[in-house]
Amino acid sequence: MRIGFFDSGIGGISILNEVMKYFPREDFLYYADTLNVPYGTKTKEEVNQHVKAAVENILKEDVKALIIACNTATSISINELRSAYDIPIIGMEPAAKPAIKLSNLMQKKVLVFATDLTLKEVKYRDLIAKIDKHSIVDSLPLPELVEFCEELNFNWNTLNTYFKTKLQDFDLSTYCTVVLGCTHFPYYKPILKELLPSHIQLVDGSKGTIKRLSILLKDNNLLNENGTNDILFKCSDQSNAYIEKMKDALSALENELNKPKRKHLK
Length: 266
What we know:
CATH class of the largest domain: Alpha Beta
Number of helices: 11
Strand order of the largest sheet: 4-3-1-2-9
Distance between the termini: 48 Å
Radius of gyration: 18 Å
Low-confidence stretches: 262-266
Order of helices and strands: EHEHEHEHEHHEHHEHEHEH
Number of domains: 2
Helix content: 40-55%
Number of strands: 9
CATH architecture of the largest domain: 3-Layer(aba) Sandwich
Strand content: 15-25%
């Protein structure tokens, strides 16, 4: 049986990459909803319909647990999915809680990068209202970054200009952490580490996801000791070209092919 991953596109491969390291004896299924990517610019109703249809397709395979490796899909559909299916389903949300904890210690602020839809969703607003006691969280929508990622655009001159433009109105000296609140965004950790002041830490949801997955697999006696880290890639438009793109995206993460050169960032 496989651990399933779902995202609208290749973003969730950043989470798959981390989970594979932690569970070397598991096998995996990665499903991308390529017919409907990106989700971040669609309505809540549209996203919910797309997610439910995709999960129905995923569960036709031999899947023992499912990670919704998409912050937008989690914010909209996770409760409905958990009510409908009896396998462990793990959602992802911007890792604001550990970022706030760190920033409170440093007496600085938190900046959350996410899609427009995630930032507008009630689930996200309720999360921030609950944990942001000192109003230190700011947010920045970066929908174009999803498009860059889907195009495997790792052109550092382009990205350098993009990030500097988006961040020009922020006094980065007042921030301690940046939350990567979309699974597409960790692809760009290398350039962000170059561009952002050295005191800023990047936080994403991969550690929390791994911890939760480990607990659920153990509690449900679902751990595999015989897997080989095999991955089955699937997508909703059944495109062989996109499946190759998913493999390329995983290779980019494994080999750090997207690591920038400093000369590109001057």
